[in-house]
Amino acid sequence: VTSRASTPAALPRHRDCPFDPPGGYAALREEGGAARLAFPDGTVGWLLTRYEDVQQLLADDRFTSDRRRTSSPVHAFPVRQDDRRALGSFIGMDPPEHTRYRRLLSKWFTSRGLRGLGPRIEEITDGHLAAMERAGPPADLVESFARPIPSLVICELLGVPYRDRADFQRWATVLLRLGQDEDEIYAARDALWEYMRQLIDTKRRHPDQALLSHLANGDHGTPGGPGTATAAGLTDEELTGVGLLLLIAGHETTANMLALGTYALLRHPEQSRLVRERPELVDHAVEELLRYLTIVQFGTVRAAREDLEIAGVRVRAGETVVGSIASANRDRSRFTDPDTLDVTRDAAGQLAFGHGIHQCLGQHLARMEMRTGYPALLRRFPTLRLAVPPDQVPLRHDMLIYGVHRLPVTWGGAAG
Ligand code: HEM
Q1: Tell me: the pLDDT tens digits for 327-377?
Q2: Which of 59, 82, 110, 239 is the least buried, fewest Cβ under 10 Å from its Cβ?
Q3: How confident is the model over 125-168, as pLDDT tens digits?
Q4: Residue nearest ligand 1's atom 43 by CA
Q5: What angle do CA 377, 379, 384 make, to 5 degrees?
Q6: Which has the closest alpha carbon to 245: 49, 35, 47, 89?
Q7: Cis before 96? omega within 30
Q8: Cα–Cα distance for residue pair 266/409, rounded to 1 Å
Q9: What PROSITE patterns does the record tag this protein with (predicted)?
Q10: Is there an atom of ligand 1 within 6 Å of 373 CB?
Q11: Helix (H) or strand (E) holding 312
Q12: HSE on the CB side for 202, CA within 13 Å?
């Protein structure tokens, strides 16, 4: 074990290829996996890059997820310590608090809990693809396919009015864009918070069958009244935080997987053909695209609660440790030929949804949307191709969640 005295460096950011993580990660994996990491707020911590180490980090209760204790790998300012807007955001909580939220929500997000949603996802997908076909080429695939489908699905599941999307998508974009200043970020959070807080009030007064209303009123639709804990045992403020986390996480992530995944498939025509022609491969294809693209590009962030050893290094209490899931998913000691997109491989065990107690709550929902989305798109438009040269596809280097800002496509003429 060492406290390796290497000079702290910032997180690798430069990508040579739109689908590969920054090249710096491969070198770090070779050099031993753990490296000193300099955070924008001036603190120094660690970066883990190997599969085994990242997996261990995410399963290790000597680390906390509390956002008030971790440094951000991308923002220079600390999280405000007394921020009521952190209430309910269980992605940044530890047990036993975290466990309370997962217990309340998990039944809604298991494959069984979501089963009834399958036909609706197909309907929404077909509806959007039909509209795209009617409008004719060219199209921006982000606007006409990748963003609206998960957005409409999560809105219906939660009971958030889809017509309000221009507002909450604009605020969410501010939260997820790098280099925004602190005041802009907090203003967007306030706006989102107020929006959701009012929506929770509305659910109390006019209960419906969707998730937020159930959490607010219980399964029997008996409102608790303002200021009282909800039937699910959450205060209105906690429920507001839960609603926001689900709304934002449910939007941005799957939308970017659908768009970037399609871009990757268009650049690998033999892989698109397999997805189009061999329906039995779709589960493998989705898992492989998740692995290959790992859109949570800056990794998962934890802080050590005590002095400890991991990945062959000594970490001091309070230091932030970033586990790069993008790097772990390209570790050749875990995946054969990891830099090749191969939709026939079994990519089970990939870490794109994280690992351990915080592993993505929405993963089954996201998989359902992707399993429906990619084949439906490729079958309806067998000649789908980029409408611009690849170097003109704008990449989301500037966002917490990687992907493409736009994906201009066209179709018609001979199948490619
Ligand atoms: C957690 C990725 C879709 C809701 C996570 C984490 C990752 C992730 C890596 C773990 C974060 C950590 O350990 O710090 C993704 C990807 C998605 C996706 C790649 C799409 C392809 C969704 C959807 C929802 C969602 C559709 C909607 C419900 C959540 C929530 C958490 C989470 C609530 C926090 C879980 C907890 O702390 O217990 N996601 N996600 N995600 N995700 Fe997703």
Answers
A1: 999 999 999 999 999 999 999 999 999 999 999 999 999 999 999 999 999
A2: 82
A3: 999 999 999 999 999 999 999 999 999 999 999 999 999 999 99
A4: 360
A5: 65
A6: 89
A7: yes
A8: 10
A9: CYTOCHROME_P450 (PS00086)
A10: no
A11: none
A12: 12
